[in-house]
Amino acid sequence: MSTTERPVPRWAYVLAHTIPFLTLPSGLWRLGLVFGSSMGMLDDNGNHIYLTGLGGKVYVVSLSIFSELVALTALGLVSRWGEIAPRWIPFIGGRRVHPYAAIVPAVLGSLSLMAIWTYGFRDVFTNDFIPFSSTPWAALMITCYAPLQLWGPALLVLTWAYYRRRVSVPAVAV
Questions:
Q1: C-alpha span between 121 and 86 (Å, rounded)
Q2: How many CA atoms lie within 13 A of 86 on its CB side?
Q3: How far apart are CA 132 and CA 46, in angstroms?
Q4: Contact present, 40 and 137 (Cβ < 8 Å)
């Protein structure tokens, strides 16, 4: 664990390292599509849907990698590189990161994630959901995507801890 200006609460450190694992199951589920499985999804005629074409496969792999990379940025809220920009970054490398340069995007990101996944899960338990060949296939997809519901709130709580550590002034004992 790299040293930070002020100590990171243990729970925040654990939460930051948990966030990338919230996106992992959905990425692995999507990779099943890339490797030729329909993952039980059916079209309107009841036929299995397969991901075809290189473009679609590249998109799905890129989406999975991008999701993981974005989730990994949560580590900056508990790491030294969330306070001092790494030297290899052009123009800002080695400079102090203004707390709000991390807080504002993290809050906007967490609120966006909550909106996206609330909207994305709106039809999960209705007849308007993706048709699947069996209940276990549907349950697998829901199980793999359900952790994404926690990503936004977890990031928001982690951002609050970062704010408390970097911005709020501790009370002075009299």
A1: 37
A2: 6
A3: 9
A4: yes
Region 51-63: mean pLDDT is 95
In angstroms, how far is the first alpha carbon of the chain from the final one? 33
Structure token digits, residue 61:
């792999």
What confidence tens digit (pLDDT) does each residue in 76-135 have?
A: 999 999 999 999 999 999 999 999 999 999 999 999 999 999 998 888 877 778 899 999
- The gap from C-alpha 20 to its chain's centroid, in whole angstroms, comes to 6
Are the C-beta atoms of 8 and 162 separated by less than 8 Å?
A: no
How would DSSP label each residue in 57-125? HHHHHHHHHHHHHHHHGGGGGSSGGGTB--TTSTTTTTSBPPHHHHHHHHHHHHHHHHHHHHHHTTTTT
**HSE-CB for 103 with a 13 A CA cutoff:** 12
d(CA 166, CA 99): 6
23: which 2 tokens?
């996106």
Residue of 81, 77, 67 lying closest to 113 (CA atoms): 67
